[in-house]
Specification:
Elements lengths: L1 E4 L2 E5 L5 H18 L8 H9 L5 E10 L2 E11 L6 E8 L8 H15 L4 E9 L9 H8 L3 E12 L5 H12 L5 E7 L7 H9 L1 H4 L14 H14 L2 E9 L4 E10 L6 E9 L8 H16 L5 E7 L3 H10 L2 E12 L1
Parallel strand pairs: 5-6, 11-12
Antiparallel strand pairs: 1-2, 2-3, 3-4, 4-5, 6-13, 7-12, 7-13, 8-9, 9-10, 10-11
Helix pairs in contact: 5-9, 6-8
Length: 344
């Protein structure tokens, strides 16, 4: 179904429409280059795979905005089907050359329509902003979100680790000191597929991200994650061509994996990694397990990914514990990412 707004058409597309997928990719890549120029090159393989093979429990609703037949904007309204059934996560992108012409507003109205048709009560999305003393960032995204009635629910700070600046001797000292507090715990490492004996424990840790990490005012409930969902996510990652490296700590007394940190690579960008989860089970905190899994996973990853140069991570600005670990490792702040929320 299409909506005609003057000379703008908003049209749904699916994963089999190669031309639409490519057009959406080009819009996304142009926006990233404009809005976050230090981001790594966009991985076309991962982007196309993400559209063709969504993760379990996710229903995507994708649209292109065409101005006189030319693709100028894209929209995805993501609806979870397993949990958070009141929420719709919105990714709304307008090509930098076509902004401030009403295209974003038209896409926003479509997002509200789709979310309401799916029984959702609120929209969520994020924007990037400049930090004091940080690189320039276009504030148009935040202005738009506020103009549409959104409110700032959570602020996260992106930090970057440049491997050329890492002090290996400082990491050695940090790790050695951490291990003095970790008696009774053992290191586990793996790539891509969680060992069978720990898949249930990983599901528990993944499920605690919302309850344990600062979430500000975001109305995001605990996700329903079990071993089957973990295996489903791993299968989808394989279809995306994504590589994952993980380090965990096992409580030797219980045999359970109680700490986990992951790094994620996209297929065509070997020089860059995204930090995934880093979490320690609440009952096992105070043993520096977070420091151990972060440093051990970095070194494990480098043994397999010698081209790695940069890692990006996000933390809520109030997450002082994880920020202290990251900064001790050499991560430095780059910009602020605001999570917006709006009742509809």
């Amino acid at each position: 179904m299409s909506i005609e707004i003057q000379n703008l058409t908003i049209t749904a597309f699916d994963a089999d429409d190669d031309d639409a997928v490519d057009a959406s990719f080009r819009i996304d890549a142009a926006a990233r280059a404009h809005d976050v120029p230090d981001f790594p090159p966009h991985c076309r393989h991962r982007y196309r795979g993400g559209i063709r093979h969504p993760y379990p429990g996710v229903a995507d609703n994708r649209f292109l905005a065409l101005l006189e037949g030319v693709p100028v904007g894209s929209l995805n309204v993501e609806l979870s089907t397993l949990d958070n059934l009141d929420n719709a996560f919105v990714e709304l992108i307008v090509h930098p050359a076509h902004r401030r012409r009403g295209i974003g507003r038209a896409l926003y109205r479509k997002a509200v329509e789709v979310a309401q048709a799916g029984g959702r009560k609120r929209l969520m999305g994020n924007t990037v902003e400049q930090m004091a003393g940080g690189p320039d960032r276009d504030g148009a995204g935040a202005e738009f979100a506020a103009a549409m009635g959104g409110h700032r629910a959570l602020c996260e700070i992106r930090r970057k680790l440049e491997l050329s600046h890492v002090d290996d001797q400082a990491l050695d000292r940090l790790l050695a000191k951490a291990y003095t507090r970790a008696e009774g715990y053992s290191l586990m490492r793996w790539r891509d597929w969680t060992p069978d004996e720990y898949v249930d424990d990983v599901a528990v840790l993944e499920g605690r991200m919302v309850t344990d990490a600062p979430m500000g005012d975001l109305a995001w409930e605990k996700e329903q994650i079990d071993a089957d969902r973990i295996r489903g996510n791993e299968s989808i990652r394989a279809l995306h061509g994504t590589r994952l490296y993980a380090a965990g700590m096992r409580n030797d007394a219980t045999g359970r994996l109680v700490a986990l940190s992951t790094l994620i690579f996209f297929k065509t960008v070997p020089e860059h990694a995204w930090q995934g989860i880093t979490l320690v089970h609440q009952a096992d905190r105070g043993h520096r397990l977070g420091t151990i899994v972060k440093i051990e996973n970095l070194r494990y990853t480098l043994a397999h990914e010698p081209a790695l140069k940069v890692i990006d991570t996000w933390n809520a600005e109030v997450n002082s514990y994880m920020i202290s670990i990251n900064e001790a490792m050499g991560y430095r702040p780059v910009d602020a990412w605001v999570d917006w929320q709006q009742d509809i």
